[in-house]
Amino acid sequence: MTEQTGNLTFGIIKPDAVRGGKTGAVLQRITDGGFKIRAMKLIHMTKKEAEGFYEVHRERPFFGELTTFMSSGPCAVLALEREGAVKAWRDLMGATDPAKADAGTLRKEFGGSLGENAVHGSDSEENAAIEVSYFFSRLEMV
Ligand code: GDP
């Protein structure tokens, strides 16, 4: 294993994109972007599992909507490695609101709305480590 803090981030292909048949297209963009996929699986989160993942957003007005959406169908969870992975993955995703995302970003291309915006990415190295370990054991990291 080549575990190096700073080079790892966590991503989700959200239920809207998986439902829409975009998993393959997003994975292609990830590998084209120079990321190595260190771990990957399809999961269908329960509402409680989604609430655990988004715990930091519990007080936000959209928490209920967000966790209902994230548990509405399968999603693909990913551990991604690249130099400067956190920023590189957020750059590839684009702004939270697909309507405001730059051309060529995943959210612009695949996102439907502010809530259903196709992909998730960690916002810091610290959160990347927490989020990777929420979904993957060390044995699942290749
Ligand atoms: P991100 O880091 O770009 O994903 O954005 P945030 O951390 O601000 O929000 C987390 C996630 O909550 C977003 O990716 C959206 O899926 C969702 N979200 C943010 N704002 C809203 C909102 O106003 N309504 C709903 N339904 N979902 C939202």
Mind explaining what this structure looks like?
The protein has 142 residues and is an alpha+beta fold. It has one domain: Nucleoside diphosphate kinase-like domain (Alpha-Beta Plaits). It is 39% helix and 17% strand. The protein is built from seven helices and four strands. Helix 3 crosses helix 4. It is globular.
What is the element layout, followed by pairings?
Layout lengths: L7 E6 L1 H5 L3 H10 L3 E8 L3 H7 L9 H8 L4 E7 L3 H9 L12 H5 L8 E3 L3 H11 L7
Helix pairs in contact: 3-4
The structure holds guanosine-5'-diphosphate.
User: Span between N and C termini?
Assistant: 7 Å
H/E series = EHHEHHEHHEH
**Count of helical regions:** 7
Tell me the number of structural domains: 1
| CATH architectural category | 2-Layer Sandwich
% residues in beta strands: 15-25%
CATH homology superfamily: Nucleoside diphosphate kinase-like domain
Throw out a few tags for this protein.
Alpha-Beta Plaits, alpha+beta, 7 helices, binds guanosine-5'-diphosphate, 4 strands, 142 residues, 39% helix, 4-stranded antiparallel beta sheet, 17% strand
What's the short version?
The chain has 142 residues and is an alpha+beta fold. It has one domain (8-44, 75-140): 2-Layer Sandwich (Alpha-Beta Plaits), CATH 3.30.70.141.
